[in-house]
Amino acid sequence: MTTQPEYAPVPSPAPAPTAAAQLLARIRADRRAPQWGPAFEQDWAKALEDSRHSYSLTPLHDVVRTWQARLSAAPAVDAFVACGKDDSDGIALEDALGSRP
């Protein structure tokens, strides 16, 4: 009998080395660039510092994955807001995606 789980979770693949630069280009092209650009750069700088101390790329990968999810969800959020439905019972994006690293 083994002590390993029968179905071990598969870790998500690491983002491509150019993923952060591609994300920043997408953010700068978005209408939210004045708010999102500095927020991404702040998250990236903190993750870079954390990576330097931990010798791990995980904080950088987490920032890329978080911002990829935000950018992917933005069109759906825009469509929902544009349709004029009541969103007073909604939740914060950070609650849905997790807090920023």
Helical percent range?
55-70%
Order of helices and strands: HHHH
- Note the gap between the termini: 39 Å
Assembly state (oligomeric): single chain
Report on the biggest sheet.
none
Helical stretch count? 4
Q: Assess the beta-strand content as a share of residues.
A: under 5%
What low-confidence regions span 5 or more consecutive residues with pLDDT below 50?
Answer: none
State the secondary-structure class: mainly alpha
How much is the radius of gyration in Å? 17 Å
Query: Can you tell me the overall shape?
Result: globular
Mean pLDDT: 85
Q: What's the count of strands? A: 0
Give an account of the 3D structure.
The chain has 101 residues and is an all-alpha fold. The chain has a domain of 47 residues. Helices cover 62% and strands 0% of the residues. It is built from four helices and no strands. The chain is globular. The mean pLDDT is 85.
Concise synopsis of the structure shown:
With 101 residues, the protein is mainly α. The chain has four helices and no strands.
What are the SSEs and their pairings?
Layout: H1 19-29, H2 33-54, H3 58-82, H4 93-97
Helix pairs in contact: 1-2, 1-3, 2-3
